[in-house]
Amino acid sequence: MFQAVAVLFIARLYDVPFGIGQMAAAGAAVFLASLTVAAVPSGSVISLVPAFQSTGLPIAAISLLIGLDRIPDMFRTMTNVAGHLTSAVVVAALEDRK
């Protein structure tokens, strides 16, 4: 969700026209990039590079998001870490049963 909103925010900020084709490209890039986000601080900000490249947005605009994103990023990182730890515990429990 953050990545989609960030792409739209930067597109409006830089007055980049955003048509249906660019929305589809950004949606595909954001979806694929969101599958690879590591559970580290600011991982989601770095994963915006493919979405920015696919829509023609300036990569330098990511620096604006870094300043705005610190507090919400802490919550996203906490959720990612909790999910990774939970899945590791489930896999470990399933391996012990077999």
Short description:
This protein has 98 residues and is an all-alpha fold. It has helices at 2-13, 20-34, 43-46, 49-55, 62-68, 70-97. The protein has six helices and no strands.
Measured distance between first and last alpha carbons: 38 Å
Poorly predicted regions: none
Rg value: 16 Å
**Helical stretch count?**
6
List the main descriptive attributes of the protein structure presented here.
single chain, mainly alpha, 74% helix
Describe the structure.
It contains six helices and no strands. The chain has helices spanning 2-13, 20-34, 43-46, 49-55, 62-68, 70-97. It starts with a helix and ends with a helix. The chain has 98 residues and is an all-alpha fold. It is elongated, with a radius of gyration of 16 Å. The relative contact order is 0.15.
Question: How is the secondary structure organized here?
Answer:
Elements: H1 2-13, H2 20-34, H3 43-46, H4 49-55, H5 62-68, H6 70-97
Helix pairs in contact: 2-4
